[in-house]
Design goal:
By secondary structure, the protein is an alpha+beta fold. It has 5 helices and 6 strands; from the N terminus they run E-E-H-H-H-E-E-H-E-E-H. It has 2 domains: 10-73, no CATH class; 76-160, Aspartate Aminotransferase, domain 1 (Alpha-Beta Complex). The strands form 2 sheets. The chain has a 4-stranded antiparallel beta sheet. It has a two-stranded antiparallel sheet with strand order 1-2. Strand 5 and strand 6 (135-139) form a beta hairpin.
């Protein structure tokens, strides 16, 4: 996908967006962006009720200036998505692995032999998505490198032998 933040939110008629920073490189913080003030007049009260208003909010908000400048958020997201596509490509070379869902973003869902899952989880962080099917969810992030993917592929190939 090659679009702007405005192109995938306001231009599509989105009313409110939860714009996450934590999972895409920020130390801490999520922003709520409202395009319809009538719907969000009381947002400031909701934030406090839901423990989303912190005493030093300006420090959390300061991260967003760098995050949004020069589209760092998009660069981070593109890396995560590209690494997921690379991971899926490399996993598709292993006969015991089946990719169960199309890779659109930074997640790759695969099935693998049940015995492999706990062994891999000793070294790599991932969750079992569907235990009955031995389906796991593998996530790539803003700082995933090709080397990280290769480490996982090597570990899986060792199990496959």
């Amino acid at each position: 996908m090659n679009t702007t933040l405005k192109g995938m939110t306001r231009d599509l008629g989105v009313d409110i967006v939860s714009f996450g920073g934590t999972k895409n490189g920020l130390l801490f913080g999520e922003a709520i962006i409202s395009f319809v003030p009538d719907l969000t007049a009381d947002m400031r009260f909701y934030r406090k009720q839901l423990n989303q208003l912190f005493s030093k909010m300006r420090f959390i908000a300061a991260q967003f200036e760098a995050y949004l400048a020069n589209e760092l958020w998009l660069e981070n997201a593109r890396n995560a998505n590209a690494m997921a596509r690379l991971l899926a490509s490399r996993l598709s070379e292993i006969p015991q692995i089946t990719i169960t869902q199309k890779v659109y973003v930074n997640s790759v869902f695969v099935t693998m032999p049940a015995a492999w899952i706990p062994v891999l989880q000793e070294k790599f962080m991932f969750y079992t998505w569907d235990e009955a099917r031995n389906e796991v969810r593998l996530m790539c992030s803003f700082n995933t490198l090709e080397e990280h993917i290769e480490e996982l592929i090597i570990a899986i190939r060792e199990l496959a032998e």
